[in-house]
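Support reply, case 0932

Customer input (verbatim):
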Amino acid sequence: MLNKEPHYSPEIEVEPLSPYHIPEVAQLYEEVFGDHFLGHMGQRFLRPFCAQFMNSPTNYGYVAKNKGRIVGFVFGTINRRPFSQFYRQNFWKLVALVLLRYARDDYVRKHLRNRMNYVSEALKSLFCLPAKELQISPERSLFAPARILAIGVAPNVRGLGIANQLTGHFCSQMKQEGFKKVGLSTLPWNERAIRFYKKDGWIVEESNDSSVSFLRSIG
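Our regenerated output:
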């Protein structure tokens, strides 16, 4: 059962991610995830990364706006390998950007080893099937849920229910497309995110030293 619906600001509007949103969303991503690996990858990496959630048959992106300014975003997918097309289309550019950040950023050097599974996934993307062939069909949605990959809200507007609106918008879209469940995960040390997900009605599915996974039934 979901908790009591939080207070929503009437000035917040949620709309699909579009091309003119990308620079602002990429800047917000860097601000919100400054203590995460991708938050250290710079704008030349983050802009194409954010753009993959726009006009895609398997990836979804939405922004929350307050008086015309983007104050939050959510990225989600119905693809088992949501980044394959991104890696395939930008492979050599990404290699150059990662090497550049590795040379300049101590955080990237320290944590790159923990991201080797993404390096492996990028290599596989050069030879894998197109993204549309990896799409999860609604018929399988009971067992293979859609997933939220990232939620970000500007620090100065937290507590207004923006994250709830973003997750609710994504879940509503997935329900319309026939999915029964939505999943997401976070790092075990991210206590703020864990508290939010539990309050927002997400149920812990699995927890280990590297991640905490949540699930929400939307059928």
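We compared this against your earlier run and they match. Two observations from our side: The chain has seven helices and seven strands. The CA atoms of residues 17 and 62 lie 5 Å apart. Please reopen the case if you see a mismatch on your end.
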